[in-house]
Amino acid sequence: MSADFKSPEDCQSMSEVRVGVDATDRELLELLDRRFGYMRAAARIKPTRDAVRDEARKAEVISAAVKDAEARRLPADVVASIWERLVEGSIAYEFEIWDRIRK
């Protein structure tokens, strides 16, 4: 782990836990920034607006996240809910970008 925060197993105080959570949140936002960059690329590449929503791909992405969560012994129902919202939010964002670049 980073020198800026301790691993969860090494935390001895709530202050250390909070520093780790805050650092992790910043890392998650960096990853979301990259993921939404891919949504902008998809909006640019997809030839039709109808191509933006792909239910088969949505199901594949959520299923993969749930499977990975289960392997990590994370609460799969929580991960499924987060990924449902993430994918739906990504689709909405992609529609917004698709429309914007074609006006």
TrEMBL record:
Ranges in coiled-coil conformation: none
EC number: 5.4.99.5
Any one GO MF annotation of this record: chorismate mutase activity
Leading EC class: isomerase
Ranges where the Chorismate mutase domain occurs: 8-98
Record keywords, A-Z: Isomerase
Keyword Isomerase: yes
InterPro entries: Chorismate_mutase-related, CM_II_prokaryot, Isochorismate_pyruvate-lyase
Signal peptide: none
Name this polypeptide is given: Chorismate mutase
